[in-house]
Specification:
The protein has about 350 residues and is mainly β. It contains six helices and 21 strands. Strand 17 and strand 18 form a beta hairpin.
Length: about 350
Amino acid sequence: MKSIVVSACLLFTLGSFWYSVSLAGTVTDIDGNVYQTVTIGGQEWMAENLKVTRYRNGDTIPNVTDSVTWEGLNSGAYGEYDNDSSNVATYGRLYNWFAVNDSRNIAPAGWHVPTDAEWKQLEMCLGMSQAEADKTGLRGNDEGGKLKEAGTTHWNTPNTGATNESSFSVLPGSLRTIYGNFGTIGFYAFFWSSTEYDIGGAWYRSLGFSYSAVYRLYFDKRDGFSVRCVNDIPVGIDEHGGAEHPNAFRLAQNYPNPFNPVTIIEYSIPTRSSVTIEIFNVLGQKVRTLVNESKSVGSYRIEWNGSDETGKSVSTGVYLYRFQAGDIVQTKKILLIK
């Protein structure tokens, strides 16, 4: 279940450059892992590393612990740092690029692994120029510091320039090399993009303990890196750099529709309101309450996974979802196919 608000931005100034950060969101993957999200400029990103062990269709992503097997892979797999599951809660899992690129999709519904261009958009939002973003190697000045968790609880000393003013909260989860070996945790963070460089490599980003810039290059697809996902739908930005405030009550058609196993419902409210969103079957019997709380001005998304109030999956069929905010009531049809 996910509820995300994209209003009430905190604005930071960098000389004459403004960018907006919104801190109120979560997204849930197919395994039930819940991730905090952050909206920076026009993008909503996970603020934690991916932990999922299944593709979106439910197929298992292999956990390959043997180094020789890992080196020979040309299909999706993940590893846990030092093959120790206790590292997952903090640092997430390390995926080869084949898992990132798999058509079964490693990201939660409504999300995707960012392209190289989307990484550039994030970097430029934090102050990097287009010309600098297009370079390889270390680029920019302090953009990496704005992305890194501050302090040395997880990062090795000195963790140069780390302020985390973006709330992106990068942790040094290290990597797994093509030979199956693990780097030293605490020194570097590596993130895949979904953009292929050539038949053997793909673009990535790295942040380090001893610099505050961002490293961009391509690595072998067999390497194991951390993954952050970005929302499929860009966030609206007004002329001052803040998230747009909706001017009307709106309930959107769910997507995908028909759906299985998860669908997304979007709605907007122009004034603070008590909001309910409920699912009904065609007999008018309530199946599930998705939202029942006071909401501030903003645009929101909520997921329904086809289960009732007890968590039991409901049957294939047509359902109705009803949105009520004050005196405003809107209803739309939704189709679940199994």
